[in-house]
Amino acid sequence: MIPVRGFEGQTVAVFGLARTGLAAARALVAGGAEVALWDEKPASRAAAEAEGFTLTDLSKADWSKFAALMLSPGVPLTHPAPHWTVERAKAAGVEVLGDIELFARAVNAAPEHKRPKVVAVTGTNGKSTTTALIGHVCAEAGRDVRIGGNIGIGVLDLPDMHGGAVYVLELSSYQLDLTSSLHADVTVMLNLSPDHLERHGSMEGYVAAKRRILMNQGKGDTAVIGVDDQWGQQICTEITAANRRTIVPISASKAMGRGIYVLQGMLYDATGERAVEVADLNAARSLPGRHNWQNAAAAYAAAKGLGIAADEAAEHLLTFPGLAHRMETVAQLGRVRFVNDSKATNTDAARQALSSYPKAYWIAGGQPKTGGIEALADLFPRVAKAYLIGEGAEAFARTLEGKAPAVQAGTMEAAVAQAYADAAKSGQDAVVLLSPAAASFDQFTDFEARGEAFREAVQHLAPAAKGAA
To answer: Cis (ω within 30 of 0) for the bond into 368?
Structure first.
């Protein structure tokens, strides 16, 4: 745990008692603060009480007594409307912040010799893989690395800091909206495309939230920026004009005179006098496809920014074991390979998966996002057949009509069984791909639960499917 100091003898309201909120409450208490905890869900309140916390109904509380409101990132800050706790806090002049801001203040308050290195990773797609990949490279290079934030362990539940530690943090736009003083030694902005617009009001609001990751950087820091989309290009141009930190553009689609890029799987470093081949990513089984090439370029650049030698960073990329629910091969049954890409909750992420295979038996659907799957129309020729689940099944079927064969399977178990039967019947090497292009909340608690349901359905097909390929 990382104790949060600065609120000694004061009371901090904490709203939202899932992983983030409870971790923040523990860290605040460890730093000498009092906490007033509340959640609208009885199960979350019960979990807090089970840890020994006393609950305070914040709807009836005197907000003038609070030093700050620690808000769970899942709670609306501004859009579609500020949560009632945010309104109460603003009315009382109470600061609203999140767990990443508490972490930032803990780092900033530490003596200089005890401050760790911080790598902050964001983007629309690829955040988790890139965060884990940077962590893997650092660990293999002998660094004391801690991985958390929007992946795995909440940041304040990570081991306490020391001067030799490296914190690699995945940060969502929700978390960044609640952060103001984070100083990252290395920032990574992978890519930007429309997502979570209901929470940010517009694409401009979403980009503004993501840009917050670049705040507070200065001389000696490194900013790694993906330039394969227009928003990344614009940000890279703007911060280059500021001429403060070291800026490393990355691309998975084009050669650049300066930066780090990947062409046909070969990673090039053009940050020196000439472009140098540094790794053949085609040899990295856990990094298939152009989207993973961008992740690898970002991880390589971040590792160099931390002082890890270029050849060592490149070597460790190739030994990355992969991440669950992100293009994860879960089994091979005969000539049929099963790939779990449950993390693909939007069309951009699904595009990356579908583009990785010439043909796929595609399981898609869930809670559809604006536009459904229309943006994937150019990839429909790669769909051998689609098996549609959840709320979006009917709408997805209409989009696919006349362009790719599709069936409304309804459930994950039915989709997997039907996809396997058709793939096996083809008599060829085949891929059954779960890449939903939709949120999971209609049928599952989160994308991880959806991915596990896929894994279980595959395991039930036949005993031979239980062994991963």
So the answer is: no
Q: What is the pLDDT of residue 465?
A: 44
pLDDT of residue 72: 94
Strands 266-270 and 276-280: antiparallel
Q: DSSP code of 135?
A: H
Tokens standing for 114?
């005890």
| For residues 430-454, average pLDDT | 96
Can you tell me whether residue 143 is helix, strand or coil?
coil
pLDDT of residue 203: 87
The amino acid present at 293, given as its one-letter code, is: W
Residue 288 in 3-state DSSP?
coil
> What dihedral do alpha carbons 280, 316, 454, 420 form, nearest 10°?
30
For 152, left (φ over 0), alpha (ψ -120 to 50), or beta?
left
| Phi, psi of 105, deg, nearest 5 | -70, -35
DSSP string of 191-210?
---S--HHHHSSHHHHHHHH
Q: Cα separation of 65 and 217, whole Å?
A: 34
What values do phi and psi take at 246, rounded to 5? -80, 125
Taking only the tens place, the pLDDT of each residue in 17-41 is 988 999 999 999 999 999 999 999 9
What's the rounded Cα separation, in Å, for the pair 275 and 256?
A: 9
CA dihedral for 111, 239, 204, 440, sign (positive or negative): negative
- Interhelix angle 310-317/127-140, rounded to 10 degrees, is 120
The answer to whether 287 touches 293, Cβ cutoff 8 Å, is yes
In the chain, pLDDT over 90 holds for what percent of residues? 86
**Degrees, nearest 5: CA angle 118-120-121:** 150
The CA–CA distances, whole Å, from 236 to 75, 80, 168, 225, 304 equal 30, 29, 22, 6, 19
Contact 289, 105 (CB under 8 A): no
What is the spatial distance between Cα 212 and Cα 173, in angstroms, rounded to a whole number? 9
The residue ranges of DSSP E strands in 216-322, in sequence order, are 222-226, 246-251, 259-263, 266-270, 276-280
Per-residue pLDDT of 38-61, as tens digits, reads: 999 999 999 999 999 999 999 999
User: In this structure, which amino acid lies at residue 205?
Assistant: G
DSSP 159: P
Q: Which of 346, 336, 339, 345 minimizes the C-alpha distance to 324?
A: 339
* pLDDT, greater one: 286 or 443: 443
pLDDT of residue 468: 40
Catalytic annotation, residues = 127, 150, 196
Q: What is the pLDDT of residues 374-413, one digit of tens each?
A: 999 999 999 999 999 999 999 999 999 999 999 999 999 9
b/e map 285-299, b = 16+ CB within 10 Å:
ebbbbbbbbbbbbbb
Cα–Cα distance measured from residue 147 to residue 131, given in angstroms and rounded to the nearest whole number: 7
**What is the structure's pLDDT at 462?**
66
